[in-house]
């Protein structure tokens, strides 16, 4: 496994998850890791790191060349589940290539992922793919992506993930 696609929304019918699945299907050698089927404990900064599911998750992060996180935007930031992934991943995150797929309720929150990206860049020396996917409800019809622009963005993000990760490896 070279790439990890982490879906962090716990909502049934999640739009970030729908997009993450499309991207994972287009990236050979990727694993789709869904927090809905693989619940992780909230980080306590201590004993959580000894739990088997956290040890296993950290191994997946360590082995990945590049990681895409599918994120619901909550309160002008990433959801707590997404932030928890970083707290559990810790040192395993160093030097990874990261990309983002965001689902939001409104277009004004498009910068919400930036404090999360800053922490990955400055704290963990990650390389952030400087073009992410940001979609709203009206880009979908039920569980189908209807927006050609969003489909195009997902395809580009998958290609950039491979291109940038390969170039740096
Ligand atoms: C607690 C909460 C806070 C939210 N805050 C924002 C916000 O600040 N900006 C925004 O555009 N949408 C916000 N939303 C809407 C979600 O981003 C939207 O429902 C999105 O589709 C969630 O992702 P998901 O479909 O993958 O679960 C919020 C939703 C919830 C439940």
Automatic annotation (TrEMBL):
It holds the Pfam family FMN_red. GO terms for molecular function: FMN binding; oxidoreductase activity. InterPro entries: Flavoprotein-like_sf, FMN_Rdtase-like_dom, NAD(P)H-dep_reductase. Its cofactor is [4Fe-4S] cluster. GO terms for cellular component: cytosol. Residues 1-139 form the NADPH-dependent FMN reductase-like domain. Belongs to the SsuE family. Isf subfamily. This is NADPH-dependent FMN reductase-like domain-containing protein.
